[in-house]
Specification:
The protein is 86% helix and 0% strand. By secondary structure, it is an all-alpha fold. Helix 1 (2-37) runs antiparallel to helix 3. The longest helix has 41 residues, at 55-95. The model has no long low-confidence stretch (mean pLDDT 86).
Length: 100
């Protein structure tokens, strides 16, 4: 009986952790996507009459580099949430807990 209760407590703790990670990920996602679509284009629009033509290449490269970096950052955060979700599901299956 103690083993079943310990498994259920572990499943409950893993579920709470997975839910907390997912909620934090969802709250932070809008910030990451804002960082992709806002800074470089905004600077280009502000300075469009004052910059030389060659700097558009520099800004384009910065935009692509920042986008790739933030894509990797978001992928890692998403993978962390998926891993926590799989661990919680495995613990719930081993404890015999059904999630409604």
């Amino acid at each position: 009986m103690d083993d079943v209760e310990a498994l259920q407590r572990r499943a409950s703790a893993l579920r709470a952790e997975a839910d907390a990670l997912t909620n934090a990920y969802q709250r932070a996602t809008w910030l990451r996507f804002t960082l992709v679509f806002f800074p470089v284009p905004f600077v280009v629009v502000l300075l469009r009459l004052e910059i030389e033509s060659w700097t558009y290449i520099l800004f384009g490269s910065a935009y692509l580099g920042l986008s790739a970096l933030l894509y990797i950052w978001d992928g890692r955060a998403s993978d962390k949430c998926d891993k926590a979700e799989r661990a919680a599901q495995a613990a719930e299956r081993s404890a015999g807990v059904s999630r409604a």
